[in-house]
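May I ask you to review the protein record following this short note?
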Amino acid sequence: MADVVVPWLQLTILLTVATASHFAFKRFQLPTIVGEILIGIILGPSLLGQLLAPGKEGYFFDPMFTGIFAALGAIVLLFIIGLDSDITAIYSRRNIAIAAGGVILPWLSGYFLTDFMLPNESFAAKVFIGAMLVATSVAVTAAVLLEMNALKTDVARTIIGAAVVDDVLGLIVLSVSIGLSRGTFSAVNVVLLVVGALLFIGVGAFVGIRYFTGLVNWAERKGQRSGLKHTGFTLGLGLTFLYAFIANYAGLHPIVGAFLAGAAFSKSAVTEDFKQGAEYLGAIFTPIFFVSIGIQVNLVTLWDQLTRDPSLLIFGLALTAVAIASKVIGCWIPAELGKMSRGKSIAIGVGMAPRGEVGLVIAATAISLAVISPALYSIAVLVIVLTTVLPPPVFRRCLRRCLKEDLQARLASMEQST
């Protein structure tokens, strides 16, 4: 019975503390997601976890429990973003160029920095360190866009579109890294992975718009005639989880499937019902996603590693700076070359900088393959968390300038028309 009760106690603590952090961080005009990640660090093995669960290495919260709810939160968040997106605009030349710049430059920068500062590490380790800097955590940026009601801006559409392309390119990078670490790299396997990912996105979009949207509309009408509420929403959410499952099976992150489903349903007759229902679900589960990122950080282990080798701290700080700078520059330049203003281009670069859960997955893959040491893994986790926490406040300021720029452009257009 105790095992049954514990998850609900954990859920109570997570949601209550996350809500309290929202008020605290709103007062200082900071993104709520930053507060949620910091709360996770406090509740994790770094601080309170050592008191709450001393016999479990400080992990009071069941990783499987938090992992399921965190995944659900990310899926719901990207489903909401998809409902406000135009799926036909994802694979524009500009989005592909931005995503490519945001993948190639961080990968090379991470590799060469590791080669310079840690020359004794293996070639595979250096490749994986670079790979950890590649993937953008669109869920982090999407939360800021949603919070600031900026989902319909050019900046938001470009970031979301480029992030989806980024996920496909990140899949290639991860595949290449694993192949190099095992000595089994195959161009054929990479091509098959990319083709599978593109087929999923193309076929998923077509089937969703052509068939699933009609099915959801039919279920809603049928339900209303039978006196049933939200049947379209329930079926649509079930199909969203199906998309997430297939995306994961295709080698992509499940949130790409959720985004694709949301975009496919964006023109349905029950889109507003989708938005309202998903926002309530997101209010419950999305905070757990960001809290779970902080829970994975173990500052005790990190401190132990740093006391043994202080040079790792210098490497970690340098890697954090390189991770953020390479992503910002790699996305900013293609955006500006794509005829976006300087302010919007920089905002896109900053918005693509958070790494989040995807980087953690790559780090976990590296240590599971014995490519990197536990010490280097601890540093990698710290870098990923820092690149998740630091960009959002800057992105908010950049986004405010972009919104002001758009407002001034609309006012100037109105003056010219009169």
Summary: The mean pLDDT is 82. The domain at 82-408 is CATH 1.20.1530.20 (Na+/H+ antiporter like fold). The longest helix spans residues 187-225. Residues 80 and 276 are 9 Å apart (CA to CA).
